[in-house]
Amino acid sequence: MKSSNFRIVPLATEIAETARQTAASGAPDHAMVVANSPNGFPCRHCLRYAQLGEHMILFPYAAIPAGHPYFEIGPTFVHAEPCGRYRATDEFPADFRAGRVMRAYNSNYDMIDAEVGNGSAPEAIIEKLLQKPETAFVDARSVTHGCYTFRIQRL
Ligand SMILES: [Zn+2]
């Protein structure tokens, strides 16, 4: 049995659905793209990399909401076709064990720490960041592109 003290929070299904509808309506900030590399198109809803040839929607998502100094809006992929929201919320998603930075935020959405998992298990980094009492949540982001991947909350 896993005994993690965190919960993985994928993108809400409503947000993925809205992105699909907005893309279908032709909104210029919702691009339809075809995955043409194996590890370049992470779906923030099912938390897997797209297979080659899968259609993805690229749209802007505010992981940190407006009204805060760390307000941040950035490009996010979801599958163009409906996909299942990631369910193994007590397990770090296997596709994203490498290439992520973990950023800790307080309850005012201020970034208070960040750490790249250079070879160490992401669970150990999450554990360490969640040990700080002021940590409200941790965001996993792409090291290279900075894109928001998913949120991690305390159980
Ligand atoms: Zn997906």
Your description of this structure?
There is one protein chain. It is globular, with a radius of gyration of 15 Å. It has helices at 13-24, 122-131, and strands at residues 6-9, 31-34, 42-43, 48-49, 55-64, 72-79, 100-105, 111-116, 137-142, 148-154. With 155 residues, the protein is an alpha+beta fold. It has a five-stranded antiparallel sheet, with helices on one face. The model has no long low-confidence stretch (mean pLDDT 95). The chain is built from two helices and ten strands; from the N terminus they run E-H-E-E-E-E-E-E-E-H-E-E. It binds zinc ion. Zinc ion binds at residues 43, 45-46, 78-79, 83.
H and E string: EHEEEEEEEHEE
N→C terminal distance: 16 Å
Secondary structure class reads alpha+beta
Ligand list: zinc ion
Q: Helix amount, in percent?
A: 10-25%
Can you give the mean pLDDT? Answer: 95
Low-confidence stretches: none
The overall strand count is 10
Strand content: 35-45%
Basic shape: globular
SS summary, helix count: 2
Radius of gyration: 15 Å
Strand order of the largest sheet: 1-10-9-7-8
Most strands sheet: 5 strands, antiparallel
